[in-house]
Amino acid sequence: MTTPNPPAAASAGPKHASLVLVALILAAAVANLNLAVANVALPTIGRAFNASQAELNLIAVGYSLGLAASVLYLGALGDRHGRKLMLLAGSALSLPFSFLAAYAPSAEVLVAARILGGVAGGMCYPTTLALITALWSGSARTRSIALWSAIGAAFASLGPLASGILLRNFWWGSVFLVTVPIAVAALAMAWRHVPAHVNEATAPVDNLGGVFSIVLVGALILGINFAVVPNAGTVLLTLAIVTVAALAAFVIRQRRAANPLYNLRVAARPTFWVAAVAGIIVFGSLMGAMFVGQQFLQNVLGYSTVAAGAAILPTAVLMVVVAPRSAKLVDSIGSRRTLLLGYVFVLLAFVTMLLLWKQGTPYWIVALGYAFVGVGVGFAQTPAAHALTGSVPPTRVGMASGTADLQRDLGGALMQSVFGALLTAGYAREMTDLIGASAQASKVTNGTQTELTKSFSSAADTASRYPQYASQIDSAAKTAFLNGDQWAYTAGIAATVVGALVVVVFFPGKEREAACLAEYHAEDLGPAATTGPAR
To answer: If we measure between CA atoms, which residue out of 119, 113, 112, 135 comes closest to residue 86?
Structure first.
């Protein structure tokens, strides 16, 4: 059942469509910026707290962790209790958590603030796409999704530049305040212009399934991060057991619930699950490339925080430029071929980073890698979101929007975690080998070796205490970092190839896609409602 609102559902767009879309894009921008603002500040934060690489990884992925873990459940709550209400609550709650992160007295408090901020983002972020799907139709919806995706991703790419400018003039905590004015503006515009109660569900929410989804995603992401923490075997094993148990409980619950949180029958549709997997890899590639790339620019090439943030501008510009063309390609050649076009450019980006990003690399090569990322994400994000939202009934758009958001959040968290884990492992291994091969190896104590292998920022601190060895430590740290980032970029190439193969094999072509979506729509309107148990 739905809450009726025929005019909004039947028209191409809502009243004051431009203002509504701006409000939704601004609300999404709060989450998009928060996903990226920490990356540029990581070296500075590392020095301020003497943080390990594992702690820096958690600070970087903390927001994604909170958002990814909560987005499915909170999206369903929005479908049932009011998407506008959830949008306003999330925008409002993002403010105190931003201040908590900015003034965190320790790395642990900062991680907690980032996770809580992600949960606030989980309240408002999924409702933005759900509202676009409910309020627009036809080609107007495709264009709106393209703008929402492109501008949102561009905000994420501009996060490092904004952070760099703030870091040049203020303390590291200022980067977490950049979203405050945007959140205030989004809150005001959403309150005034966004319609309420459009195609919302009346069936009860699967709260138990929501709890299982939070535990599942949270344990999975934390487990990846703890995989590289020394002497954390017990914690890692515990998280692995929790992840497997939560996955089993979630699947069983969704098969038995009268109104499942995540309808597995709908999720099994090729246009849905392939688009979800494709989006996770594409958006994860964007966040992973920024996560490692920002540290590479500052640690290896010696860029300032502002220069490192500005270096990523080609990504932001090209995502916005390419997105309208992507929307047209979806209509002309279909989602499958448009997705594959995006994958080609993402692959070129990682190959560029793997082969050409070295010590002394000129900026034009850095810009080339980021440009490929921007074009790839610009082409891929619209077909992924379009396929997801077109595969579900109107009353379950929270499931589609939650999955679309999960692409970005889980993809970003997973890829940053995987990239961070590989970077940490590769750095530590190479630094250990370099220390062992050094003529000064006998003079290096166990404590000093631990500091040197902990992270690049820790090695830099050690170099400042031993100026007579500073040049050797700096050179070794850069060499070790470059070894670690090669591991990360290789993983990015592997993930991109696997994702492209999944699209080629399982996603239907243009004509078949249109037939599938029509078939799903007819099925959803029939007596077998998608709110029933999966079969």
So the answer is: 119
Task: Report the candidate in 317, 438, 336, 431 with the shortest Cα–Cα distance to residue 387.
Answer: 336
* Banded pLDDT at 352 (limits 50, 70, 90): very high
CA 204, 208, 211, 212 dihedral sign is negative
Q: For all residues of the chain together, what is the average pLDDT?
A: 80
* Per-position DSSP letters for 195-212, written without gaps between them: ---SS-B-SPP-HHHHHH
Sequence letter at residue 233: G
The secondary element (H helix, E strand) that includes residue 28 is helix 17-49
Residues 486-491: contacts with CB under 8 Å, at least 24 apart: 486/354, 486/426, 487/422, 487/423, 487/425, 487/426, 488/288, 488/292, 488/418, 488/419, 488/420, 488/422, 488/423, 488/426, 489/292, 489/350, 489/353, 489/354, 489/357, 490/354, 491/418, 491/419, 491/422
Confidence at residue 367, expressed as pLDDT on a 0 to 100 scale? 92
Reported as a pLDDT band with limits 50, 70 and 90, residue 230 is: low
Q: Which two tokens stand for residue 247?
A: 């996955």
Q: Is the pLDDT of residue 406 over 80?
A: no
Which residues, in sequence order, are CB contacts of 380 under 8 Å at separation 6+? 278, 279, 282, 326, 338, 339, 341, 342, 343, 346
How far, in Å, CA of 531 to CA of 60, rounded? 37
Residue type at 433 in one-letter notation: D
Strands (E), 316-356: none
Alpha-carbon Rg of the chain, whole angstroms?
23
Which amino acid, one-letter code, is at 220? L
Contact 282, 347 (CB under 8 A): no
pTM here? 0.72
Q: Estimate to the nearest angstrom the gap between the alpha carbon of 207 and the chain centroid.
A: 24
